[in-house]
TrEMBL record:
Signal peptide: 1-15
Protein name in UniProt: endo-polygalacturonase
GO BP term (any one): pectin catabolic process
Annotated keywords: Cell wall biogenesis/degradation, Disulfide bond, Glycosidase, Hydrolase, Repeat, Signal
UniProt cross-references to SUPFAM superfamilies, sorted A to Z: Pectin lyase-like
EC number annotated for this UniProt entry: 3.2.1.15
GO cellular component, as recorded: extracellular region
Organism: Apolygus lucorum (Small green plant bug)
Domain of life: Eukaryota
A family per Pfam: Glyco_hydro_28
Length: 346
């Protein structure tokens, strides 16, 4: 005779469809958890943590969220050896326009962050996301995480007051690979604040502030090393590629590669490397406490709009840069440079 308890264990070990967030706790032992057509209540994080290694989490149908002014995140997923994936036709629609007030993450309405990843030896694949309220993916304290085929569409933010809609914020993480993704937003496509061995490959960034390392300095972890940005496109953005370190802070930015990056219609700076970042903007002379060393820029090409500058370097204590094949043209803004290591030309 098979007991009900045994049946429950058999069911728990296989696949579970969740259509209401209340069913989540009971489903956490399943090998495959499908989140289908869920409306997450206001002020609640859709939390999937303490999952068993090997768990697959799927997003299916339409995922929406109730409205509340709070810090979020809307979704948090943690664990080891977890695969998160989107099923064909699904959409995670945050309806961020309900929060947008042109003031972003620091002011006005309090806006929930979108997605907090706390993952090791894991992957996030094929999610389709629309209109995040403010910051998108927060990759913090993750190790060996692959994020690919993400479609993050916040295009409506340009008309409707979206701001600080970062694509991927990476901090304090190791061995992170973000690839084959699309981001249309109103802030950094990628921002790396700290971490090591981070690859950003074959991504398209539209409308935002470009691909950024920084700001680095003034946090708990102030080292960024071994970052590779390869084969990406940045268009209709404020900047193309950027490194910014915090003035008077300490730390290091080292072994950074930008290779094969195509820029199109960049409004402010095609390539900008600055060591004087303070309170959300550049401020006077750079300081050298966060030296930028081992910076390779190869085959970065494209156009800056007339009012912008093709390249701007404003650093101290930088060394061992290798730049080649930089063909950024069109910008007519004349800018002074500081701290360019010997031999670097563009
Ligand atoms: C990294 O994670 C993947 C799963 O995404 C796993 O297959 C691989 O073994 C992990 N690598 C290491 C070195 O643990
Ligand atoms: C320059 O960087 C080195 C580390 O490479 C550091 O020891 C030194 O203090 C820095 N200099 C300044 C002026 O900050």
């Amino acid at each position: 005779m098979i007991s009900l308890g045994l049946l429950a264990i058999v069911a728990a070990a296989s696949a579970v469809d969740i259509t209401n967030i209340n069913q989540l706790e009971a489903a956490k032992n399943a090998q495959r958890i499908t989140l289908r057509d869920i409306n997450v209540p206001a002020g609640v994080t859709l939390t999937l943590d303490k999952l068993k290694p090997g768990t697959v989490v799927e997003f299916a149908g339409k995922i929406t969220f109730g409205y509340k002014e709070w810090e979020g995140p809307l979704i948090e997923i943690g664990g080891k050896n977890i695969r998160v994936e989107g099923k064909p036709g699904h959409l995670i629609n945050c309806e961020g326009e309900r929060w947008w007030d042109k003031l972003g993450g620091n002011d006005g309405k309090k806006k929930p962050k979108f997605f907090s990843a706390r993952l090791t030896d894991s992957s996030i694949v094929g999610l389709a996301i629309k209109n995040i309220p403010a910051h998108g993916f927060s990759v913090n304290s993750c190790k060996n995480l692959t994020i690919s085929k993400i479609h993050l569409n916040v295009a409506e933010g340009h008309q409707k007051g979206g701001h600080n809609t970062d694509g991927f914020d990476v901090g304090n993480s190791e061995k992170i690979r973000i690839s084959d993704s699309f981001v249309h937003n109103q802030d950094d496509c990628l921002a790396v604040n700290s971490g090591s061995d981070i690859t950003f490959e074959n991504n398209v960034c539209i409308g935002g502030h470009g691909i950024s390392i920084g700001s680095v300095g003034g946090r708990k972890n102030n080292i960024v090393e071994k970052v590779k940005v390869i084969h990406c496109k940045v268009s209709d953005s404020d900047n193309g590629i950027r490194i910014k370190t915090v003035k008077e802070a300490t730390g290091a930015v080292r072994d950074i590669v930008f290779d094969d990056v195509e820029l199109k219609n960049i409004a402010k700076r095609g390539i900008v490397i600055q060591g004087n970042y303070l309170n959300k903007g550049p401020d006077g002379d750079p300081t050298g406490g966060v030296p930028i060393t081992g910076l390779t820029i190869n085959n970065v090409r494209g156009n800056v709009l007339k009012g912008g500058a093709n390249v701007h370097v404003w650093v101290a204590n930088a060394s061992n840069w290798k730049w080649s094949g930089v063909k950024v043209t069109g910008g007519q803004k004349a800018m002074e440079h500081k701290g360019v290591p010997p031999g670097v030309k563009w």
